[in-house]
Amino acid sequence: MERKIRVLTAKLGFDMHNRGMSVVNRALRDGGTEVVYIGNQFPEGIAETALQEDVDVIGISSLNSASSLELMERVMGIIKKKHLEDKLVIFGGIVLPDDVPKLKEMGVNEYFPPGSNVDSIVSYIKENVPQ
Amino acid sequence: MEKSNIAKGKERKEVFTTSSGIPIKRIYTPEDVADLDYNRDLGPSGEDPYTRGIYPTMYRGKLWTIRQFGGLNAAEATNDRYKLMYQMGVTGFAIAIDDASLIGFDPDSPEAEGEVGVGGVSVFSLKDMEDMFDGLPIDKISTAVIQAINTTCPHTAMYLALAENRGIDLRDVDGTTEGDPCSFGGCSDLKANPAPVRQLMRLCGDLVEWCAINAPKWHPVSFTSYNYREAGVNAYQEIGGLVASAVDLIEEVLSRDRGLTVDDFVPHYTFHLASHNDFFEEIAKMRAARRMWCKIMTERYDAKDPRTKMLRFHVQTSGSTLTYQQPINNAIRVAYQSLAAALGGVQSLHACSYDEALCIPTEEAVTLSIRTQQILQNESNVTNTIDPLAGSYYVESLTNEVEKRAMDFFHQIEDHGGWTKALELGWLRQQTEKEAIKYEEEIRTGKRRIVGVNCFQMEEDPSKITYFRPDPEIYKKQKARAEKLKEERDNDKVEETLNELRDADDSGENVMPAMMKAVKAYATLEEMTDVTVRRHFASGTKSIFSHLSRMIE
Question: How far away is chain B from the Cα of A65, in angstroms, using its nearest Cα?
Answer without folding.
Answer: 6
